[in-house]
Design goal:
The complex is a heterodimer of chains A (about 325) and B (about 220). Chain A has about 325 residues and is of the alpha+beta class. Chain A contains nine helices and eleven strands. Chain B is built from ten helices and three strands, in the order ββααααααααβαα. In chain B, helix 5 packs antiparallel against helix 7. The mean pLDDT of chain B is about 95. The chains are: A alpha+beta (about 325), B mainly alpha (about 220).
Chain lengths: ~325, ~220
């Protein structure tokens, strides 16, 4: 008999009400280290326990007071088919034939912001403070400061942010930062009937995942493991995958996500070398002028021109 | 016979000093529309390029306005520059003396014009500026449309957009550097700016910097 594993109770270790003093990263800004360190939190999504009921989607819409238009059926279970500015999470269904067991496996992954420790969106954002990261790991968008440029979309290794056509601002999962701030878990975790989604401190969630992975391995899923990709410094939304050796089978979950080197180059060397190049050109101009002085036309040259023009007139 | 670099409206007015028509009113208006667009694009683009320059969004009424207005100014610049291109491209074709001019860049920068060959309407430096601007504006409008997410987000992949935004930034840095060269040259070479404000330069200026062009004008190489 395998006893049913209860998720951890809403943790008492999650500190409440955070503000500016809890920021560890702020887009397009230099900030001093936070005055206090909140306990890192995480949402753990156990894909093996997900039944695809979409209660999390509904809870997300409910809590964030969003309405998403009625979709169309294109022959797959995905609904909505993609994340939108009004849909921060969506179930992605994959029918996968396990080449070893020949079993059809129905893989259901709840997609949404992964809350990277090294967030590409924040790195790409040009608007100071439009994207922030709290010391508990939550990456949040401040819509008052968002300018709608879409750079976060380019920075994100998971293709998560969506720009609203209504107010031209970027939207994504907040990890229910407003709920977490007052000691509650995210709405999706609260609604999940199978406790496939659980929330707590990152340490608790890793420990909980260990138990789940052992259980899966005992059932023959020898590659079961925790998806907490190191390429983005780990994430504050983690998956338990029965096939952690090939995350891409879960609707193209990136195998080794990292901020694109193109984005790193754009937001790194280009930014500094670009300003330096422009400053150098301007400085060379000033120095050249100081050294050579103005390039002036002499009286003699005016006379030469008069002679030439005079000749031209008479000829 | 009409010389390749004598443009419509170019002409000589004998007198003391000699006055030379260099740019028509149409060319000047076209130039200043382009120039205004380029400056506004540089300011709004730099605002989004480096956090220390984000304050420049204030000139445009905030970040959101800067974000939507920048591409539209780019469209105006593209068509305005296209007008300049049509006017100026022929006179900016590479000529045999341009290689010599380039080889003697030290004399150019030292202001020793007597050691340079006689030059047509544009010298090699001006031609490099012209063609650099032309190529960079095409690169910038193409990469810019790819990252104009408000209307064109659906037409390219995120990976394509990443390259586009990098190329757009690099192209913008390059064109600003070219612009600095252009503006500096106009300031350093005294008597130049009048060409784009009043449309005229003095005969001495033409003699010193564009003697071949002046000879062509005097010799009757005028277009209507």
């Amino acid at each position: 008999m395998v006893s049913f594993i209860l998720p951890p109770a809403p943790t008492t270790d999650v500190k409440t009400t955070y503000g500016q003093e809890d920021l560890i990263k702020r887009s397009a800004s230099n900030i001093s280290p936070p005055a206090r360190q909140l306990t890192p939190v995480a949402k753990l999504i156990d894909v093996s326990k997900c039944i695809g009921c979409k209660a999390c989607e509904v809870a997300c819409l409910e809590w964030n007071d969003m309405r998403t238009p009625v979709g169309v059926n294109t022959g797959v279970y995905d609904n909505p088919h993609d994340l939108t500015p009004d849909m921060f999470t969506t179930m992605r269904f994959t029918e996968w034939v396990n080449p070893e067991s020949k079993n059809l496996e129905w893989l259901i992954r709840k997609d949404g912001c992964m809350h990277c420790a090294d967030p590409g969106c924040l790195k790409a954002c040009p608007a100071p403070g439009a994207i922030v990261q709290y010391s508990n790991g939550i990456v949040d968008f401040d819509h008052d400061k968002c300018i709608g440029c879409g750079y976060c979309v380019k920075g994100c290794p998971f293709n998560i942010p969506r720009i609203s056509q209504v107010d031209n601002k970027a939207y994504k999962c907040t990890l229910c930062s407003d709920r977490v701030a007052v000691g509650q878990g995210p709405a999706c975790a609260k609604a999940c009937p199978t406790q496939a989604i659980v929330f707590g401190t990152k340490d608790e969630m890793k420990k909980h995942a260990e138990g789940r992975i052992k259980d899966l391995q005992s059932r023959g899923f020898k590659n079961a493991g925790l998806y907490d990709p190191p390429g983005v410094g780990g994430t504050h939304v983690m998956y338990v995958l029965h096939h952690n050796d090939q995350p891409q089978i879960y609707a193209n979950l990136p195998n080794n996500p990292r901020i694109s080197p193109v984005v790193e180059l754009w937001k790194g060397a280009t930014k500094y070398a670009g300003l330096a190049a422009m400053a150098a050109f301007a400085a060379i101009g000033v120095i050249h002028h100081l050294v050579t002085g103005p390039n002036k036309v002499s009286e003699e040259e005016e006379r030469k021109a008069e002679e030439l023009a005079g000749k031209g007139k008479t000829s | 016979m009409t010389a390749y670099d004598v443009e419509r409206g170019d002409g000589v007015h004998p007198g003391q000093p000699v006055k030379v028509d260099r740019y028509t009113a149409g060319a000047r208006v076209n130039h200043w529309i382009t120039a205004t667009c380029l400056v506004l694009l540089a300011l709004s683009g730099l605002a989004l390029f480096h956090p220390s320059l984000f304050f420049l969004t204030g000139l445009f009424g905030g970040g959101q306005t800067t974000r939507w207005i920048h591409p539209w100014i780019g469209v105006v610049l593209f068509f305005s520059f296209a007008g300049l291109f049509v006017r100026f491209w022929r006179a900016n074709l590479w000529a045999s003396e341009d290689g010599t001019w380039m080889a003697r860049l030290a004399d150019v920068l030292g202001g020793r014009e007597e050691r340079l060959p006689e030059i047509g309407k544009y010298n090699a430096g001006q031609k490099v500026v012209f063609w650099s601007m032309s190529v960079l504006i095409v690169i910038l409008i193409a990469s810019g449309i790819l990252i104009w997410d408000q209307y064109f987000a659906a037409y390219s992949t995120v990976e394509t957009k990443r390259f586009a935004v990098l190329i757009h930034a690099l192209g913008a840095v390059a064109i600003i550097c070219v612009w600095i060269v252009h503006v500096y040259a106009a300031i350093w070479v005294r008597g130049t700016i009048g060409a784009m404000t009043r449309g005229q330069v003095t005969g001495g200026w033409a003699w010193r910097h564009h003697r071949k062009w002046l000879r062509e004008l005097v010799g009757g190489g005028k277009k209507a």
